[in-house]
Write a structure and sequence with these properties.
Blueprint (H helix, E strand, L loop, with lengths): L9 H4 L4 E4 L6 H8 L4 E4 L6 H8 L2 E6 L7 H5 L6 E4 L9 H6 L4 E2 L6 H17 L1 H9 L17 E5 L3 H12 L3 E5 L11 E2 L3 H7 L2 E4 L13 H5 L5 E5 L8 H9 L3 E6 L23 E3 L8 H21 L19 E9 L4 H11 L4 E9 L2 E9 L3 H9 L4 E7 L1
Parallel strand pairs: 1-2, 1-3, 3-4, 4-5, 6-7, 6-9, 7-8, 9-10, 10-11, 11-12
Antiparallel strand pairs: 13-15, 13-16, 14-15
The chain binds 1,4-dihydronicotinamide adenine dinucleotide.
The site of 1,4-dihydronicotinamide adenine dinucleotide has 30 residues, from helix 6 and helix 8.
């Protein structure tokens, strides 16, 4: 029943296709959708649930959510027109990704929109910690005055150790070098060192030479309590630790112990093993007693610029999929990056990833004497995605042929 109710021609009917944006997504998303030709946009300021969500999704081809809207299997099954989902945030666990995949719905997110925001905060924390500012600030707030140069250092010439040299880690490395810091890093993958950054042989070596160690790894079984008692003990005496990655990466009790003993001079922690659910929740942590620890409420990536970037980045991915068929960086879907298809029609065929589908597609097109100008295929888990460019004159016939292929989940045409 999914097939019948579906609009298959996005390019001709663009203006009627409905995009629903929930949870007060930044207006930059609306701008990008409009520029892409999608003008039928409905926005909601809040997350919706149950029947209200179903009503809002009625007839929606694109839906944009942030972290609160739960797109469960039941909701997705009840939204037959839905062609793509945009998560205007980093996380995607509010969406049933498997079900979306099986229904042929790619899910997009914004993994790198706030990279710079995190990098800038960490850079500031490096300087603040090296100067001992957090403690001095706390003393003055209580009416004290301790004017001293003890434990106060410039960052120039000091060593910054970056654990996890990915998008954020590399940005920080570049910025820190501009301040005259030496940069060393560790990563489990082979990484191109930027600037004069140097890869060290192992984590212990990094910890032993770094004046500040900063964590930028993902949350994985391998990174769970990556910084435990043993690793904290391996840090250079008097050094600092920064964690703006995920709360599970640092053993907080072990960190308290090395702060207590002054083996570490300070820390900046933005993420916690347990975080309050909302802004009325209470923050409970054994770190609150330390003046020399900068505590922030998981705001490493929270800036106005990041909000704007997230809006336009995710909307651009929806537009690109709608207009061109590209699924680059979809989190649950075969990735296909496609060139322009000027002068031709493009057929997008999403199918069950079982043997023989592509052969079947090509047999049918060949039997109908339809010439394939270009073809792109990618598969991911249960789903295959084949894109076929044909002469425009043959496109309707080709669409009919493709819809007859066993295993077809959905099929769409771009003129
Ligand atoms: P990324 O995926 O670009 O980089 C992560 C790097 O860590 C990769 O190079 C990977 O190979 C490496 N890695 C993975 N396991 C490792 C291990 N066991 N040891 C050493 N390296 C390892 O990710 P990105 O965008 O740089 O983000 C990094 C972290 O920052 C993530 O945990 C992300 O969730 C977090 N984050 C936090 C924000 C905040 O508000 N505090 C905002 C944005 C991201």
């Amino acid at each position: 029943h999914h097939m019948n109710s579906r609009i298959t021609d996005f390019s001709a009917q663009k203006a009627t296709l409905k995009a629903v944006l929930l949870e007060g997504i930044h207006p930059s998303a609306v701008d990008v959708l409009r520029q892409g030709g999608y003008t039928n946009i409905v926005t909601h300021t809040k997350a919706l649930m149950g029947d209200e969500l179903l009503a809002a999704l009625d007839g929606a081809h694109f839906v944009g959510v942030r972290s609160r809207t739960q797109l469960t299997a039941a909701i997705l099954e009840a939204a037959p027109q839905l062609a793509a989902i945009g998560c205007f945030c980093i996380g995607t666990n509010q969406v049933d990704l498997k079900t979306a995949m099986r229904l042929g719905i790619p899910v997009f997110n914004a993994p790198f929109s706030n990279t710079r925001s995190v990098a800038e905060l960490v850079l500031a924390q490096v300087i603040m910690l090296m100067r001992g500012i957090p403690e001095k600030n706390a003393i003055l707030h209580r009416g004290g005055w301790v004017k001293s140069a003890a434990h106060s250092y410039e960052v120039r010439g000091k060593t910054l150790g970056i654990i996890g040299y990915g998008h954020i880690g590399t940005q920080i490395g570049v910025l820190a070098e501009q301040l005259g810091m030496r940069v060393v890093f560790r990563d489990i993958a082979a990484k191109l060192p930027l600037g004069n950054a140097r890869e060290v042989n192992n984590l212990d070596e990094l910890l032993a030479i770094s004046d500040v160690g900063t964590l930028h790894v993902p949350e994985t079984p391998q990174t769970h309590q990556l910084m435990g008692a043993k690793e904290l003990a391996a840090m250079k005496p008097g050094s600092h630790l920064i964690n703006a990655s995920r709360g599970t990466v640092v053993d907080i009790e072990a960190l308290c112990a090395v702060l207590e003993s002054r083996h570490l001079q300070g820390a900046a922690i933005d993420v916690f093993p347990v975080e309050p659910q909302g802004n009325d929740g209470a923050f409970v942590s054994s770190l609150t007693k330390f003046d020399n620890v900068i505590l922030t409420p998981h705001i490493g990536g929270s800036t106005s610029e990041a909000q704007v970037n997230i809006g336009s980045e995710v909307a651009a991915k929806l537009v690109r999929y709608g207009n061109n068929g590209s699924t680059t960086s979809a989190v649950n879907f075969p990735e296909v990056a496609l060139p322009e298809h000027t002068g031709r029609s493009r057929l997008l065929h999403i199918h069950k990833n079982v043997p023989g589908v592509l052969a079947h597609v090509n047999e049918r097109l060949s039997a109908a004497s339809i010439n394939i100008a270009a073809q792109y295929l990618s598969t991911f888990e249960d789903v295959g995605y084949v894109v076929i460019d044909v002469d425009s004159a043959a496109s309707e016939a080709a669409l009919d042929e493709l819809n007859g292929v066993p295993g077809t989940i959905r099929c769409r045409i771009l003129y």
